[in-house]
Amino acid sequence: MKVSHIGIAVRSLEEAGINYASLFGDKNSHREIVEEQGVEVLSFPVGDTFIELTAATRDESPIAKFIEKRGEGMHHIAFEVDDLQAELDRLKASGVKLINDTPRKGAHDMLIAFIHPSSFNGVLVELCQRQ
């Protein structure tokens, strides 16, 4: 298991992207829309990890709801695993509250699933697996 990325909820990728590009440089950034999640992401590599700026593409997306309730800021931390479904099954069996029981499509051609913040001291945790 390793840290894959840190997700930051933003209202505008353009505005936030300028700020983060000044910090990290823009030469290796990656931008994509994840239609299933209703988001657009702009990722900056930082060592073996990414900082993932995430903006809503529709009002009912989880990111739009998060920003409406809490404002911009850190949204989640993501850990890459080798077998996402096996990890979800293991965590569920141990009493961890899952948001997603099965993997879904995410950015960077990854499968993803979220764990409820109540299981990890208020932190939204994402597990992801390369396809």
Q: What descriptive keywords fit this protein?
A:
131 residues; 39% strand; 24% helix
Polypeptide structure, described:
It is globular, with a radius of gyration of 14 Å. A hairpin with a 2-residue loop joins strand 3 and strand 4. The model has no long low-confidence stretch (mean pLDDT 95). It contains 3 helices and 8 strands; from the N terminus they run βαβββαβαβββ. The protein has an 8-stranded mixed β-sheet.
Topology summary:
Layout: E1 2-9, H1 13-24, E2 30-34, E3 39-46, E4 49-56, H2 62-70, E5 73-80, H3 84-93, E6 104-105, E7 110-115, E8 125-130
Parallel strand pairs: 1-4, 5-8
Antiparallel strand pairs: 1-5, 2-3, 3-4, 6-7, 7-8
The largest pleated sheet is described as: 8 strands, mixed
As laid out across the biggest beta sheet, the strand order is 2-3-4-1-5-8-7-6
End-to-end C-alpha gap: 15 Å
Number of strands: 8
CATH superfamily caption: 2,3-Dihydroxybiphenyl 1,2-Dioxygenase, domain 1
Helix and strand sequence: EHEEEHEHEEE
Low-confidence stretches: none
> If you average the pLDDT, what whole number results?
95
Please indicate the percent range of residues in DSSP E strands (runs of 2 or more): 35-45%
Structural class: alpha+beta
Number of helices: 3
**What is the CATH class designation?**
Alpha Beta
Brief rundown of the structure:
The chain is α+β, with helices and mostly antiparallel strands and 131 residues long. Helix content is 24%, strand content 39%.
